[in-house]
Structures are given as structure tokens and as C-alpha cells.
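hey so i finally got around to running the thing on that chain from the lab meeting. sorry it took forever, my laptop kept dying and i had to restart like 3 times. anyway pasting the input first so we r on the same page abt which one it is
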Amino acid sequence: MAKQTVGRTALGAATCRLIEQYQPDGTRLFNDPVVKDLVGAPIRILMQFASMRNFTIKQTDATTPGIFGAQICRTRYIDDAVQGALAQGIGQVVILGAGLDTRPYRLRGMEGVRAFEVDLPAVQDDKKKKIQKHFGRLPEHVTFIPIDFDTQALEDVFAGTAFDPSRPAVFAWEGVTQYITEEAVRRTLAFAGKSAPGSVMVFTYVLKSIIERRSGIPGAEKMMDLVAKNNAPWIFGLEPAVMQEFLKPFQFTLMADVGNADYQESYLKPLGRKLVVSEGERIVQARVG
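ok and heres what got predicted. didnt touch it at all, straight out
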């Protein structure tokens, strides 16, 4: 994934989270009081208007219906997975390809653990300025670890940090795997899989059938054309049928593999919300050991 496009894709996901904050309290999937200060003034101001929020959702879903729904539902699921790990006593949170992720600053209990944000230096530099402005300081429980995934290994960048591989950790990896090579995905899973037993990995993935242009999902081929045109091509995918076997070499046991049907049943129906969610992206939750 070209480095100059990383910030743009992170901004798109953050804008979806900001739009969700205008949903009434009783039907909002998650609360994110920080994101408005990370997207910047133009977007923050525009999203105050319902007409602009509706327009943005329509534009997001214009190529493939349900992209907006998939992004906000995956955020809620990963929030729940991280908080579930914290409730079990896990005291380290690693956010891979963090972008404009706000979990270290908004999830309950996060202030009592050690959080690590891993991303490109340029993305982190801009984010740290905005976080410092929002809070008046950089929160002490968060460590920023710069990395160029193309040229550096996670083992190297984590060396000398407060991260303790002998203690369980939860790894959150949202909206990244489709942009990187299979080799890079396997390296990342191998690093996380060496963590202490009980460690949790939760990551999103795009269906391999979409990458190979044979999914039959409405708009999927147009989406592949669009992301390539935007210099952020999707190049890696997986399928649920092979997930358990794919994870086995990394010492992970599959706990869950979820998508639209799960989001509808667990989140949307109980809130009385009717929201289209793309079938093209899913989330895996796995445990070391």
C-alpha cells in the first residue's frame, strides 16, 4: 500500500466513526468523543449537517453497498473483543496499523493498561499532535512505535520497549490486511503468536473471492477497480473455510469468524436499526494456545 494513501484510508474510517456519533444515544453502536478532533476542522464542521452525513454515507456505499455499515460494525466488534480481553486481566494492547484508531483514549479500563500504537512515522506524527491538542498532553499509558512494514520487522521495533512478550496481550488489526502481502500478514501473525498463552488477536480480512474477482457480491469488482485507481489496491484475502488451518502455524486457536449476519443479530436488530452491511469483509478473533 503506497505510504501516501495510508492517511487517506484512515481518514475515511475515522469519518465513518464520526458520523456514528450523531446516531441517538439509544441506538449508537459505540461512543467516540475523540475522533472529531482527529479528522480535522473541515470534516468535523461538515459532519455537523445531516445532509452532509447522509451524502457521505451514500458516497461511501456508492460502489459496494454496505461499506459504511461494515466499518462501524467492525469497530463495535473489535471494541467488544478488546474490552473482553481486558476484563480477563490482559494488560497489554497492541494496535497494528493504528491510523486514527481511538481505542486507547476512549475504551473503559484502557487507562490502566499499557497500549502500543504501531504505524508509519508520518501518520503517527500528525496523530500525536492532534492527541496532544485534545488532551493537553500525550497520555502516559500509550507508546507510539513507528514502523515501515515494508522494510522493518515487528520484533526489531518492539525491542527495547515496555512490551513484555511473556505477558498476554490483545492485538487489534483493523482494516489493514487487504492492503499488504500474504508474507507480511504471516510475519505479523507469527510475531503475535509468540506472545504468552492467552493472548488474543482480532483482525479484519476481505474475502479472497473478492480479491480474485469471483465473489458475485454486488459492486465488488468496481470496488477493486476503485481502490487500485486510488493507489491503494487490495491484494490479500482469506476465506472462512480455511481460517482454522491458516492460523494453526502461528499457534492460534480460532475463537470466532464473524460478518454481516452476526452484526445484524448481535448489534443492529437489538437496537432496531436497519443497516446494509457488506458481506465482503469479516473479522477473526483467535487466541494463543
